[in-house]
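Aim 2, interim progress: modelling of the zinc ion-bound target.
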Amino acid sequence: MPITSDYSLLPPPDDSLSTAIIREQFVQTYRHQLLSTNAFWLADNPTLVVALGTIAKPETKLLYILEADLAQYGYDHLPASLIHKASLEKHSYTLAKEPMWLQGTESCKDNWAGVMAVCQAINDSGIDRHSVVVAVGGGAFLDMVGFACAIAHRGVQLLRVPTTVLAQADSGVGVKSAINAFGKKNFLGAFAVPLAVINDAAFLATLNPDLIRAGLAEAVKVALVKDGDFFEQLERDAVDAIEGDLDKLQQIIHQSALLHLRHICQGGDPFEQGSSRPLDFGHWSAHKAEGLTNFGIAHGLAVAAGLHLDALYSQQMGWLLANDYARVKSLLVRMGYDLALGPYGISQTTYQSIHPLLAGLNEFREHLGGRLTLLMLRGIGQPIEVHELDDQIMTQAINDLVA
Ligand SMILES: NC(=O)c1ccc[n+]([C@@H]2O[C@H](COP(=O)([O-])OP(=O)(O)OC[C@H]3O[C@@H](n4cnc5c(N)ncnc54)[C@H](O)[C@@H]3O)[C@@H](O)[C@H]2O)c1
Ligand SMILES: [Zn+2]
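Predicted structure of the complex, ligand included:
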């Protein structure tokens, strides 16, 4: 590990008011790898061994943890397939125990049961920091298993195989994991870079259009703040992807995951220590809307409405051309998002009073550590950073949205 030193040593304290300080600095290099394949579990598919890379050795222990609901979507063969595959690849790793099923979905993040079950399995099967846990499931499941892996032995290696659009396009390539606590989403969590992420297109075939639509809201988000060409691709292909064109869906997921990955690796703040969160574009109101509706609105739908709200505000502030705003709205409507939050019980407020959604700004400010930093749009793929909002214009925009 390279060490750079900004070293200063003051003399030892000679009275009660003096201070001695030794300050050093070190830099750690991380590798973040995304692999794409189709049916990684097949015996002759090399993706898993490629992902293991230099740690592919007979003594490397693998523990598979699979989201239980996958069994009902036609993936019940996975344990047997993975055992068979391991027997053929025994020069590269050893299974620590038989692949195990655990419950996923948001409920697995709402208490410690899942986390402790993973920790128990890690303990019982002798998984150590040279071993690898392979987690296969949706975003919630990966968050739960990822958090357990981050705390067991102070961090065991995790290989993620995301199985939903949201998880493949966004959270799977992230470096965060968390469970919910004290009524707050993702309150207990950790930052950890996974050993590898395998985006497996075979899992996309069983997703219903609502799940695809929800996941694609994050792709629209990243296109809006990072990549105008990608936005054009979404204008062309997103509706087909929702309607079942798996090639187009896969291409959209790949581009979205790539933009997220590059942001983490090249954006200068992988562990979110600063106050700017470009990948949270549209999320300040989305998170609040989710809370206000007691999570009766799906995250993707809330994000789509949040993207629209911030695009509308950007236009009303004179930053975003009316034509560009119209493109954003048109894409979101064609993709089937309901942009009016009214049906979820979020209503208009008088022009003068603070809309409850706006209270989300304060929560976002707290979340960022005190200084509000938001992205707004001055073009498609062209963000601007703002530190203040015009409450009246935003209230008007919210009222237009919920009308
Ligand atoms: N860690 C991060 O950086 C980050 C970022 C964004 C979101 N998240 C988290 O991700 C979670 C949402 O993830 P999600 O949208 O994947 O939801 P989810 O994990 O709840 O999965 C949604 C549904 O899809 C089902 N499913 C999974 N794979 C399937 C498949 N191949 N075919 C059919 N059904 C399948 C699941 O059983 C579940 O019912 C939230 O908890 C959110 O907080 C985390
Ligand atoms: Zn999101």
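The chain has a mean pLDDT of 91. The first strand starts at residue 3 and ends at 4.
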